[in-house]
Amino acid sequence: MATFSCRVQFLDDRDPFANTNFPEPTRPPNYPFLDNVPLISQIAGIHRLLEAPHRLEDCALQIYRYHSGAQADFGTYLDLESTLDEQADELEGFKDQ
Prior knowledge:
The chain is mainly beta. Helix content is about 10%, strand content about 25%.
């Protein structure tokens, strides 16, 4: 099975008035996504790994590429019902890094 390994973080956005919304944890762990398995089947593993405070049904996945400095490329939100293979266009430019 092909995998796509990347670092994973969450944004604690439960309080809309908080001004300290930074990605957590500060040292993001790697997670090996299976390319041909729907993301909805994999998100529970990510949730457990990160010990995120959100309810699982409130979670979403967004691709994000960090560059040295403080610059970042925010991608689109991924469709949890689809596999990474089915969303190859969304990951263009992210997988090769």
